[in-house]
Specification:
single chain, alpha+beta, five-stranded mixed beta sheet, 6 helices, 51% helix
């Protein structure tokens, strides 16, 4: 089954790459690029499942570190951004690991792209911690400039923000997006027991 999923993901990636070769509009190319990052996040989950002794649980400490390393490679030139990572020893069922990974991908991508001016130093904080019995808090925050004046994330948000909202609902979690002093995305949710 893993090989079928992996092959299907590779086909989708190839289609995205082929489509990008024929596009000249910068917005369309950006959309294709963001879709590739999403596919890579899902592909990494399936790789982790395949290599895991337990085919149902994902070790989030290792996964999140690898996801961040992949994003750093994809974006390049991020030497001025420090990633402060604080992940509890959490293992999530694949049904929760996929939405968490996509939330991480969206929030990290937004922070990398928009939080800091070119060549500006900054910090992106990533944490996944227990806040109670089987209750988890995922937090992605940056030390950047925050939202533009007058911007309301809930009414003017991007497709990525809408995706984060939908994925938070899928987790049956509570989403909070706020300025703190940059932008902080927090999702509180209950861990499913396998």
């Amino acid at each position: 089954m893993h090989h079928r999923v992996k092959n299907n993901l590779q086909i989708v990636m190839s289609l995205l790459n082929t489509q990008a070769a024929y596009l000249h509009d910068s917005d369309a190319l950006e959309a294709i690029s963001e879709s590739r990052y999403r596919m890579q996040a899902i592909s990494l989950i399936h790789q982790k499942l395949y290599l895991s002794a337990n085919m149902a649980l994902i070790d989030m400490q290792n996964y999140i570190r690898e996801l961040i390393a992949g994003l750093k490679d994809n974006f390049g030139g991020l030497q001025q951004i420090y990633f402060d990572i604080d992940i509890a020893p959490v293992k999530l069922d694949v049904s929760q690991a996929v939405p968490v990974s996509l939330i991480l991908n969206e929030a990290l991508t937004n922070a990398i792209k928009y939080a800091f001016r070119k060549n500006e130093n900054g910090i992106i904080y990533v944490s996944l911690q227990y806040t109670g019995e089987a209750q988890l808090l995922l937090r992605i925050a940056d030390s950047g400039h925050g939202f533009p004046a007058g911007f309301d994330v809930y009414t003017q948000g991007t497709m990525g923000i809408r995706l984060i909202e939908t994925l938070s609902e899928q987790l049956e979690g509570t989403l909070e997006i706020k300025e703190a002093p940059g932008v902080a995305v927090q999702v509180s949710f209950k861990q499913q027991k396998s």
